[in-house]
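To: structure desk
From: M.T.
Subject: fold request, one chain
Message: Could you run this one when you get a chance? Sequence is below, nothing fancy, just the single chain.
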Amino acid sequence: MEANTRGTGRLPAAFLTPGSSSFLDFLAEHKPELLPGRTGLPEGSVVEAPHGTTIVAAVFDGGVVIAGDRRATMGNVIAQRDIEKVFPADEYSAVGIAGTAGLAVEMVRLFQLELEHYEKIEGTTLSLEGKANRLTSMIRGNLGMAMQGLAVVPVFAGYDLDRGRGRIFNYDVTGGRSEERGFAATGSGSVFARGSLKKLYREDLTAEQAVTLVVQALYDAADDDSATGGPDLARKIFPIVSLITEDGFRRLTEAEVAETAVAITDERLIRPNGPQAPLI
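Reply: Done. Structure tokens follow.
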């Protein structure tokens, strides 16, 4: 006699059968409609959705820092002033999101589940390279939505336990991945942020200096890109800044970021263009 599981709260047998260590593969087989990007828009339709803007990251001696501004825009309108764009992926990595905010947050949550699922099934964590590869698959799965203007373009950063250093990976809308040496930026203000990072970055930065560097870069991005929000002293809204070292992920407190942001803003009252790099 076949067991009746209706109303008992038991999962179907298919859900209890050991299989792939990939939660994405599992979801694709049993509930593909839950994957981001699987539901396209009607042809010719245009969606106005909040977009996150600028993310920056930099490697320092002992780890990596990743930061994002707090503004989300919808066309020429500020949709949200205090959006969060930097999230821990697991204990030793983080994702900063630029692009369509709703899809990006959904993708990050699924990525977190993917890494947690792998760890539970395999009894070990993925290498940092493996985590970057898994994120590639997720971005590629959203390509259909990206072609309709709902793109997600993250920066992935983490501490590589095998190599003993911080690493940064950048992506395009097709899932194309590249490892960045030293620093990276993505989003609407990335051109200006990257220019700032290029002139101020040094390989021997301390963690404190790296935090100052990324906040300076976000300030420069906000100075020239209307979609990027700078430190908002009146509303006490400051960038999200997180450090990842051999001790794991740590998000800086609002007070810590505020101290750096206020010091930078005070200095900009004297030199509006910020610190100057030497000509030679």
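Reply (cont.): Residues 1-8 have pLDDT under 50 and may be disordered. Let me know if you need anything else for the meeting.
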